[in-house]
Amino acid sequence: MTTIYTSDKAPKFPLPFSHAVKAGDMVYVAGQVGVNPATLEPLEGIREQTAQCIRNIEVILQEAGLTLDHIVRITTHLASLDDQPGYNEVYASMIKEPYPARMTVSSSLGPFLIEMEATAYVGSKRGE
Q1: Per residue in 9-36, is it b (16+ CB within 10 Å) or e — as a string?
Q2: Are 19 and 30 in contact (CB under 8 A)?
């Protein structure tokens, strides 16, 4: 059985996807970009876009009764790998240790500097 989660606080693009899907004990959060959730306009700079991506993931996880501490894996797409220092700085300030497993790749993202997707485990928080 699967459960679909949607948050009114996360951006809603006119595209065919769910904010998150729960399958078994896993919640898969769709890729989030650094936009103003109300206007869908990209925020300025990698730090601002990274923080917004993480806030979007957080409000979606809250719909499933979870927190950022339930994330076990994050995949990040950066438009430019030159943005890694700013991304890492914000990531480390918002995601607690022990950190989730992570992969970062370079991708063509149109007007966005970053896109992040997350996988969360319902059973426990990281490190428990």
Answers
A1: ebbeeeeeeebbbbeeeebbbbbbbbbe
A2: yes
Pairing of strands 114-121, 26-33: antiparallel
Give me the pLDDT at residue 102, please: 98
User: pLDDT for 32-52, tens place per residue?
Assistant: 999 999 999 999 999 999 999
d(CA 90, CA 87): 5
pLDDT tens digits, 73-106: 999 999 999 999 999 999 999 999 999 999 999 9
From 82, 113, 110, select the one nearest 15 (Cα to Cα).
110
For residue 31 the two structure tokens come to 């890729």
pLDDT at 128 over 90: no
Token readout for 1 is: 């059985």
